[in-house]
Amino acid sequence: MFIKILLAIILFITTLLTSSDCMAQAGIEKQYYINGKVKLETVYNKRHEKHGIEKLYYETGELWSKTIYMRDRKDGVEKIYYKSGQMMKEKPYMKGMLYGTEAAYWENGELMEEISYIDGMKDGAAKYYDIDGTLMEEKIWESNQLIETRKTNLRATSVNNMSTSVGQP
């Protein structure tokens, strides 16, 4: 009898010690819509950090987005889709911050916009296109500061430069 009680106490203490966050099981967590379809799939490591591909779905079951996580931070290209499966947006991340060129697409597959980022800030050219793929506007950024805007006039096909720098008209 004494041995059974002692074993029960040891088992209880062992359970308490191994149930902390740092000893949690790695795995996939799923959330569901009320209709029973999967809403979200998230992969966790043993430290309960997002680590792997997280998938989010439309209520009707189509894939909405795929995001890559490394130790709880976005790291890689996040992809967002229209219900049709056509690419809506690609957002590059490095160590949790936007880094590289983000691209958005019209539902017909044509490029809608391209925006350059460095360390989470707009830096470089940002280009905006109409639904047919014609360049409509270009903005130049430096460290999240708008430096210049160039708009394309479709009728005259000329480019107007309008500086937005401090101290200039």
List keywords for this structure.
disordered C terminus, 14-stranded antiparallel sheet, single chain, flat
Describe this structure in words.
By secondary structure, the chain is mainly beta. 10% of the residues lie in helices and 54% in strands. Strands 1, 2, 3, 4, 5, 6, 7, 8, 9, 10, 11, 12, 13 and 14 form a 14-stranded antiparallel beta sheet that branches. A hairpin with a 2-residue loop joins strand 10 and strand 11. The longest helix has 17 residues, at 2-18. It is flat, with a radius of gyration of 25 Å. Mean pLDDT is 82; it is low at 11-23 and 155-169.
Largest sheet report: 14 strands, antiparallel
Query: Judging from the principal axes of the Cα atoms, what is the shape?
Result: flat
SSE arrangement, N to C: HEEEEEEEEEEEEEE
Termini gap: 91 Å
Which residues form runs of ≥5 with pLDDT under 50? Answer: 11-23, 155-169
Q: Tell me the radius of gyration.
A: 25 Å
Q: Residue share in helices? A: 10-25%
Structural class, from secondary structure content? Answer: mainly beta
How much of the residues is beta strand, in percent?
A: over 45%
The average pLDDT score comes to 82
The helix tally amounts to 1
Strand tally is 14
